[in-house]
Design goal:
By secondary structure, the protein is α+β, with helices and mostly antiparallel strands. It has a single domain, classed as Protein Transport Mog1p, Chain A. The chain contains five helices and nine strands. A seven-stranded antiparallel β-sheet has the order 3-4-5-9-8-7-6, sandwiched between helices. It has a two-stranded antiparallel ribbon with strand order 1-2. A hairpin with a 2-residue loop joins strand 8 (172-180) and strand 9. The longest helix is centred in the C-terminal third of the chain and has 18 residues, at 194-211. The N and C termini lie far apart (35 Å).
């Protein structure tokens, strides 16, 4: 299966799953019960979070580069992406991309309530130039499957939105990426109602950029 096909499958699954991460986002958390028609995809994509219950947080990240989103914590990671407990924090196509860029350190927070799932992520590269190349490739993944680029993003930040069918309501998903030093920062938000998700995502992105500014 090509990367494009894998990504289209990812996007198709977001009606019942939550993709956080980045960078594309990045963490998968089930939305809904076991009777969901996408239960098979959920089983394939549910992350190993280092806890017997995948809805319980693991040890919190050290340091303060990332803003922890409001809401009940469902994911906390600080360590090697290659570690067994962290190997599924990102979607498979993103893991392949990160491996190609030789990224092995990841930090992440993710929270979820009944309205929205939010996440912040840090991927550490060797230097600023490497981080910029990684950002371009991560952003390109979502560009290729139709995520539109928002024109009102903060300077130096790329924000992509999964477009809703015209005249229809449904789940909405946002991905934001920017470079800070040798790291790529991702901010993500997903939920069933755009009027809930959009302001919450915008607020989290603003807080994250203020906490760790863009380095262009």
């Amino acid at each position: 299966m090509s990367v494009r096909d894998q990504l289209r499958r990812v996007v198709a699954a977001t009606t019942t799953l939550v993709l956080l991460g980045g960078l594309g986002l990045l963490a998968w958390v089930g939305w809904g019960g076991g009777t969901d028609p996408s239960a098979r995809a959920m089983a394939e994509l549910r992350p190993v979070l280092g806890s017997p219950d995948p809805r319980q947080p693991g040890p919190p990240p050290r340091g303060k580069p990332l803003v922890m989103p409001p809401g009940p914590l469902v994911l906390a990671v600080n360590g090697r992406l290659s570690a067994p407990a962290n190997s599924q924090v990102v979607a498979p196509v993103e893991k392949e991309l990160l491996d190609r860029h030789k990224v092995d350190h990841v930090e992440a927070w993710a929270t979820r309530d009944e309205r929205i799932t939010r996440g912040t992520y840090l991927f550490l590269t060797d230097d600023h130039e490497s981080a910029q190349r990684l950002l371009n490739d991560l952003d390109g993944l979502f560009d290729r499957v139709g995520f539109t680029l928002r024109k009102d993003a903060p300077k130096g930040v790329r924000v992509r939105q999964q477009p809703l069918p015209q005249g229809k309501r449904g789940p909405i998903s946002y991905r934001a990426f920017y470079v800070a030093g040798a790291a790529v920062i991702a901010v993500e938000g997903y939920g069933p109602v755009a009027n809930d998700v959009t302001p919450a995502f915008n607020a989290l992105l603003e807080q994250q950029v203020r906490n760790l500014p863009v380095a262009t």
